[in-house]
Design brief:
alpha/beta, Outer Surface Protein A, domain 3, seven-stranded mixed beta sheet, three-stranded antiparallel beta sheet, 13 helices
Amino acid sequence: MHPMVKPALRRGWRDLHTVQFGMAPAHAMVLGPMDTATGSLLTLFDGTRGLPLLRDEGRRMGLPDGHVDGLVERLSRAGLLDDATGGGPAADALRGRGAELDRLRPDAAALSLVAPGPGDAMRRLAARRSLRVQVRGAGRVGVVLASALAGAGVGRVDVQDGGRVEPWDVAPGGLPVESIGERRDEAARRAVRGAAPGRPPRGGGGARSAPAEDDPGLSLVIFAPRDGLAVHAPDPVVGEPLVTSGTPHLFAGVVEGTGVVGPLVLPGDTACAGCLDLSRTDRDPTWPRLLAQWRSGRPHQVPACDLTLATTVAGLASGHALAFLDGEVPSSAGARWEVSAPGFDWHARPVWQHPACPCGPGERGKGEQTSDDERPHETMDGQQPHAARLSGTWRAHV
């Protein structure tokens, strides 16, 4: 072990005996009391020395035997210690790819803030290379989202879509202007490859043939349709094969002037698109009539999709996707996060499991109050419906 105080947290002394690690309240921590010699020893916890050498340095400073080991234990328990050589064989392999790791160093530092154990951040970062994500939709949201995932180290990101790139598909970080007229899927996969910090693991990657829709080897499927209706009211049929195969999937996109992220569907544990549709029909008997008109009506040639709103949605969706891929359960599980221009105020609308939906909730959904009110101009700020209802099955790499 090569102990290292997490470098992502800036250090400052509050007084002679108390040190604060971190600036922002979300991750800041205060440690004390701490004497001057121990404070000096802390400067040597930079990942360049193993424990034997640190023990020798401690003795030279006049610190008693066992002091270094006690400090290591104390810092580890507080979540402030990392291991510059930890993370296992996959992390060691990533360290051997210097140029790729240099691209990912900011991500590794950020992961160290949420991965408490020494070496956990590099373990999670290295694990991303073996994951497979499919993004369905190559518009302003989908390609930016897919590129963000690839750039963050996800090894295999495939984009599916039809048709050819139109001028309004172009977006910074997504499809370039040079791709206008090309096939959308090919242009999108090239953009994803360009965003990736290194080559994908052998046997996969964005350039290979697209996997089957219900491929159980997929870690996550993300629906990012160019048609706003398909994210506002996702067709339950498109998600049925994924629910059947147990494949997690996330919805994200822009409808008119509103961005949507969620729900993240964890089959059998959280609500699916069918639950959303049934709940809307329960609340509003005219919903099926409206939906039929919207789906059968002539689509707009150029849908409304504000560039900054699309980029905002792509960023939040990729963050939720990465949190899930890293083994966490983000707040989009069982909820839709929505944001509208010009205020850009995010709020959550819970999506409850419906007892009549065949996705798997069954009796668990009965008696739960449906509070996902979709009437215009009403919000449900601060709702966090997912955490208490998840069994924990999904708190691992998929």
